[in-house]
Amino acid sequence: MSLADFAADAGILLRMLRGLPRNGSHAERLEGFYAPQAERYDAFRTRLLHGRDALIEALEIPAAARVVELGCGTGRNLAAIEQVRPVATLTSIQLVDLCPALLAVARQRVRGMSNVEVIEADATLWRPAVPVDRVFLSYALTMMPDWSAVLANAYAMLAPGGRLGLVDFHLPESGSRLGNRFWQAWFGHDGVALSGEHLPALQAAFPDSLTRECRAAVPYLPGLRAPYYLFVGVKP
Ligand SMILES: C[S@@+](CC[C@H](N)C(=O)[O-])C[C@H]1O[C@@H](n2cnc3c(N)ncnc32)[C@H](O)[C@@H]1O
Predict the structure, then answer these.
(1) Which of 108, 97, 60, 111 is nearest to 81 (CA)?
(2) Statement: residue 228 has pLDDT above 80
(3) Which atom of ligand 1 lies closest to the CA of 102?
(4) What's the DSSP call for residue 149?
(5) Would the CB of 190 count as within 6 Å of ligand 1?
(6) Residue 187 lies inside a defined structural domain of this protein
């Protein structure tokens, strides 16, 4: 890590040290947290949010698919989709998020892509007009307080045979009590609610599924590796 990188990260680190604002609606708190980070969001999260490209690969997006991302942030995952299935060949991609500052970056990114729609909405409530082939969330479920409503909504919007994919931090069953408490407190400060319940709920809802449990480095925490999972389930 160079001094220039550290200087560029300073604003992000400061915001993360201050944590998610405690007051306001969920949307207002997200905006307060992310607006000062929006410009450098992607560069910093590349070193923090691992497994996103692997998730997109594991989704096996079919030709002409309809795809939804809930909690899309800046729309960074579009580039990963392009690697496995040219975005222009898809029927539609709908990128949904509640945070206007991050959506502004997403809107810049998708300019000129007529089949990509950027939507400001709550993932617990928003539904596409027709059932879709793929729904995914990357590091978003842990920031959604009513996570079970989001999963129910994601399930409902999938066509039969469609796939739901997630990659996110969690509290693994195999983790030590002390380790899990540390990660819960560390991420909790920024409104990221690590849970041991997400993965079992997904596995129960999708009998036909793939799960990978992993750990990866966290910027500025040398030697520590945060637990995350990758899940893809097929709707019966
Ligand atoms: C850690 S970011 C991940 C963004 C993106 N998926 C990525 O991989 O970079 C979590 C995102 O979830 C969004 N979010 C949180 N609660 C939401 C909700 N109820 N509805 C829609 N988006 C929400 C936040 O605004 C934020 O953009």
Answers:
(1) 60
(2) yes
(3) 27
(4) H
(5) no
(6) yes
The residue range of the domain holding 60 is: 49-234
Q: What is the pLDDT of residue 1?
A: 63
CA distance 211 to 46: 22
Best residue for ligand 1 mutational test, from 34, 46, 69, 72 (most atoms within 8 Å of Cβ):
72
pTM equals 0.95
CB-ligand 1 contact for 123 (6 Å cutoff): yes
Instruction: Indicate which CATH number applies to the domain containing 118.
Output: 3.40.50.150
- 108 lies in some domain: yes
Number of domains in the chain: 1
Q: Kindly give the distance from the C-alpha atom of residue 98 to the centroid of ligand 1, in angstroms, as a whole number.
A: 7
What are the residues whose beta carbons fall under 8 Å from the beta carbon of 212, sequence distance 6 or more?
51, 54, 229, 230, 231
